[in-house]
Amino acid sequence: MFRKTIFKKLFLSFSVVIIIYTSIILFVTISQEYSQNRLEINKLNEMFLERESNIIDYRLDVSLNVVKLLSQQDVIAEFLKENQFNYSIYSKLFNELTGNHFSNDQLGFNLAVLKDYGTDVTSSDGYFLFKDYMKFIHMDENFTELEAFMDSKGNNDLQCYDAKDKLVIVNKIYYQQEKQYLYFFIVWEKKDLLTSNLPDTNSILAIVNKSALASTTIKGENVLASFLPVKKTHENQIVYRSVNQYNGYQKRSNAIPTIHYLYITNVHTGIGLPIHTLKSIGVILFVLLLLGFVLTTTLSRKSYSPIEEIIKNIKSGEEKNSSDSYIKNELDYIISKIHTINKTNQNLVQLQQSSLVDLQENFLKNIIYENYDKQNMERRLKLLQLDPFCQGGILVIISMQGISEWESNLSEGNILTLRKKVLALFNEKETNQKFISFPIDYKHFCLFFAEKNQHLILDVLHRMIGRIEQELGVEIVFTLSQAFSSLIELPKIFKTSFQLMEQKYSFIDTKSLCSNHISLSSGKDYSYSVETESILINFMQKRELKYAKKLINEIVETNFREESMDIYNIYDFRNALINTIKRILNKCNLSFSDFLKDNKALFFHLNSTDIEILKNTFIDIFNELMLLLEEKHSIKLSTVENVLRYIQENYTSDLSLGEVADHFQLSESYVSKLIKDHLKSSFKNYVNQLKVEKSKILLESGKYMVSEVGEMVGCKNVNTFIRIFKQHEGITPGKYVINKMAKT
């Protein structure tokens, strides 16, 4: 009866009204807003292309200006006149090429010079035979085109070439006095020239001429090819084209007129209704719901008999009151029961999910530590919903370096819980490559991916690290294992990855460590043992800076000696000291990245091979490190002194740990830890000790009774005061007074 009357009428009524009104709303809204929205998106895309093209043009202009300045140097004239190999001239030329090497590396390009096709090449990377250098910069496939360009008669020409992961610009300059050409090669890394931070992940930014020279993705080659060849445009003009479901925006380079920049997006990207339209729809939908409520009420009254029949079936056998009140109460009862059932079901689902995650973690930990039953593994995989991981995948170990400032008020257990939730939230909402994560401790987490493509995993990890570092404020390093094909290999993979994590100190700025990394070797011709490093770290941790400074001076003076240090030992010993700096910062929960940024000028000098410069630089760096540790200790000591002073001034007012924490806007756990570290005593014991010391003075004066003294030191109950006094002095207050009187 319910299905034939009320349900059918309500369903049909709501359906007809909502479909009619919604269709009208959508038709009017979409027709009015689509064209305006499309124009706004086109404008944003043009602005993006304009901005990125200006950035790339600036970088290209810088490299061309470097070539122009270089071409006017005296050493170039000497190089052109010299017909035979002259080491002095080649050495001068190499010095000119590398003179601004740090700036070139920062911008991402390198330079090379040669006289003619096939001749020897002098570059900022060293000296090369022609073919060797072409292979070095991946120009193997462009020999024919390059030879034709170099043999052409044009003066001061530019030509761009696609060389795999590099973009090569050849600048041909004619020297009138020597009647000879000189060829300058500008080699750009594409990743340094093109931004990877596109407004849309499916869009493409490319540099093209007749063909594609460089692009932000290799997956969109077919899409890119459909927009080639590009049309000739005027300066600063942006041309719009649409091919299939893609829109293309093209602009000519102001730096090299023969190339264009091309930005391609999906036609449907960014199309959506504006906020004001959504608000209008919301108002109309509210009216629809109101009309639906009126309609439902009317139909419910007409179909009262079926409802009464349902209630009789539910509450059969119970004594009934008047029909009106009974129906009202029973409907409330039914609704409350439904809500109760829904809430119970939700709690059960959450409990099941939480339990499943814990069981999955325990199962994988047992496998890692080789504590599992191989025979029951397959059955447990199905029960724990781990079927996608039975064929192996890739294991990642994340190391969260140190504790952020706002995490310092939390216990290690709370830090672990917080970081687990952040990883779980990212896994749930931010990636299609799902993984299982479980902690080793609050600093280290294992991530198990079923995906075996390292490039896909690296993309996920880089996005994850950016998000976590932003939210938690900690530095992250991670190791990435090779793909493996069975869970049986998991213990071995885990050990290898964790050992690789221990080598993170061998790399100054590396956040991603893969199994193909080669750890830096320890030199054998210098004296810096593990024991010496441990003593130095211990001095720094305990802030025994006098001894630390003396030991550092001894280490650098003993080892940085010209007669015993070749270039390889210099590099090895330099890296060993950098490792020590990172370990000291990690032990003190400080960020190496922040320290590196604050002392960038000092670390730059570590690129030198001059022993005196390295010796003085390391002494300066360790001095800066000592100042940082002393500053951190002073801040903590100042906080402790203020907390203790506040307790001493307010302990008689029944002071609690929460009140102290609120006064200084700190957490209770952090205040408790400060007191325990400084006094080797708990907060409660320290407050009681102050009460007892004060009460002894009052009792010895002979002016007050025990109950009065207890109330004066903040104990409202005299029995509580007697118990506290006896705990600290071993006798009751009354006995204490008697003993004092007997002595006098």
Can you lay out the helices and strands and say which pair or pack?
Elements: H1 6-71, H2 74-81, H3 87-98, H4 101-107, E1 109-114, E2 121-123, E3 126-128, H5 130-136, H6 143-151, E4 157-163, E5 166-175, E6 180-189, H7 190-193, E7 204-208, E8 212-215, H8 221-225, E9 238-243, E10 246-252, E11 260-266, H9 275-302, H10 304-314, H11 323-368, H12 374-383, E12 394-401, H13 412-429, E13 435-439, E14 444-449, H14 454-472, E15 475-480, H15 490-501, E16 512-514, H16 530-541, H17 545-559, H18 567-587, H19 592-598, H20 600-604, H21 611-650, H22 657-663, H23 668-679, H24 683-701, H25 706-712, H26 718-729, H27 733-743
Parallel strand pairs: 15-16
Antiparallel strand pairs: 1-2, 1-6, 2-3, 4-5, 5-6, 7-8, 7-11, 9-10, 10-11, 12-14, 12-15, 13-14
Helix pairs in contact: 1-9, 2-3, 13-14, 16-17, 16-18, 17-21, 18-21, 21-23, 22-23, 24-25, 24-26, 25-26
